[in-house]
Amino acid sequence: MREHGTSRTHLRWAALAAAGALALTACGGDAEKEPRPPQGGTASPGVQLPRLDGEKLQVAAVWTGPEQENFTKVLKEFEKRTGATVTFVPAQDPIVTFLGTKIAGGAPPDVALLPQVGALVSAVQNKWAQPVGPEAQAQLDKNYSAGWKSLGAVGGTQYGVYYKAANKSLIWYNAKAFEAAGVKPPKTWKELITAADTLSASGTPAVSVAGADGWTLTDWFENIYLSQSGPEQYDRLAKHEIKWTDDSVKQALTTLGELFGRRDFLAGGTSGALATEFPKSVTQTFTGGDRPAAAMVFEGDFVAVNIAQTQAKIGEDALVFPFPAVGAKAPVVSGGDVAVALKPSKGAQALLTFLASPDAAQIQAREGGFLSPNKSVDPAVYPNDIQRGIAKSLIAAGDDFRFDMSDQAPAAFGGTPGAGEWKALQDFLANPSDVAGTQAKLEADAAKAYGN
User: Fold this and answer.
1) Same-domain status, 301 and 178
2) Is residue 288 domain-shared with residue 356, that is, in the same domain?
3) What is d(CA 341, CA 128) in angstroms, rounded to the nearest whole number?
4) Could you tell me if residue 9 is inside a domain?
5) Residues annotated as region Disordered (predicted)?
């Protein structure tokens, strides 16, 4: 079994759940009352960067659309400060395979942003990754909690900078659709199913599920599993210390089937859900006035980027509540993207230093749909109260979270389109009654990927 070295950072989880619920509850309809900070954000002495005139860098990430556009603004600021020229290289999932091809061809990017802990471990094991330099380490020590630093380390050596975080325990909802159906945000799974029934009976399907993107289905499962079985069991399954044929997995899949098994709950029914990619799952929830394609969409704080592509206003038309408690406590699952240098160059280390500073994060935070684990980022730069509250709760919680389970797994199991956990859960969405078959497939793929 491969050790991902993350469970030691996962101390407690109730504090973040409570903080997140409080922050989101406080973010009613006053999302735009605080003024948007001027370009440049709050006063900052600025991180010191070397001059890199004439140096050309490439940065690879799987980001597309607005997320890529907003990150490009960060790279432009780096160019302005250093004189370097930086090119964004769109990567494909699984990113480890993409990078392996680039490295085999003798043309690796200088820096890559990896969306899985498992991908970071693979990069280190393949001897692709460079340890962070002293300047980047100084920024990490100044701006990051021990938990987020540890997630970027392998074998006690710091390799990565967690530039972007995600709270993956949020459900966004269309305020008009909820009002029309007389539904209130649920606090428990039972209340969620009741609300879904009421919404669907009113003529608006309850949930927009991005079934074409398997990673969203892993997030559904993880939130249910964490709340239902608890953090210790979650850690054991994440490391494959227990099998996917365990009764705890059966219980979580059966619970998820209560939602996925009701075709009338899903926008477009089962076939529609399986054909819906993540961006569409969001936009179709916030178009159509009080008769959208669905009343709710589940995913992280980054949903705000896609809401911004509609006419809906966050804090008024688009509201959010924490993932309901399935067991005794509501779940809090986090994710993130870690920046890693793949070349031993001055430019790559300078970019890691910049990304570990509040200067870089504040540029993208201002655009919305972005959450930074950097505790030195001024919360005022976030564009509305909802995103500001999510950011504050993340920082206030310190190390009290659980990291995305599929992102801890080997990429062959937890991070590959059309394979492993992604494919098994897509098949489960197509046939939610086949719990045993889904478990058997998950275990076979996990055993192969973990090597045990």
Assistant:
1) yes
2) no
3) 8
4) no
5) 28-50
pLDDT number for residue 76: 98
- Predicted confidence at residue 273, as pLDDT, reads 98
Residues 236 and 109 in one domain: no
Residue 30 counted as domain residue? no
Kindly state the helix (H) or strand (E) to which residue 260 belongs, with its residue range: helix 247-260
Alpha carbon distance 367, 374 (integer Å): 16
- The stretch 247-257 carries a mean pLDDT of 98
Q: How many domains does the chain divide into?
A: 2
What's the sign of the alpha-carbon dihedral 91, 93, 99, 101? negative
Average pLDDT in the chain: 90
Q: Are 393 and 23 within 8 A, CB to CB?
A: yes
Residue 28 to residue 41: CA distance in whole angstroms:
25
| Alpha carbon distance 407, 210 (integer Å) | 18
Cβ atoms of 124 and 155 closer than 8 Å: yes
Domain end residue (candidates: 403, 419, 441)? 403
Question: Residue 24: its pLDDT value, please?
Answer: 54
Residue 360 shares a structural domain with residue 379: yes
What token pair was written down for 130?
A: 């460079």
Q: Which domain holds residue 235?
A: 170-322
What type of residue sits at position 3? E
Q: Residue 211 — very low, low, confident or very high, per pLDDT cuts 50/70/90?
A: very high
% of the chain with per-residue pLDDT over 90: 83
User: What is the per-residue pLDDT across 18-65, written as a single tens digit (0 to 9) for each?
Assistant: 444 434 543 443 333 333 333 433 334 599 999 999 999 999 999 998
Dihedral class, residue 420 (left if φ above 0, else alpha if ψ from -120 to 50, else beta) = left
CA distance 148 to 146: 6
Among 159, 202, 157, smallest CA distance to 179 is for 202
Amino acid 94: pLDDT: 87
pLDDT band (50, 70, 90) for residue 15: very low
**Would residue 438 count as lying in a domain?**
no
CATH of the domain at 206: 3.40.190.10
pLDDT surpasses 90 at 107: yes
Assessment of whether the complete model's pTM goes beyond 0.70? yes
Task: Determine, yes or no, domain membership for 5.
Answer: no
Give Cα 189 distance to the centre of its chain.
Answer: 21
Distances (CA, A) of 38 to 70, 77, 180: 16, 16, 37
Provide the token pair at 434.
């086949």
325 HSE (CA, 13 A, CB side): 13
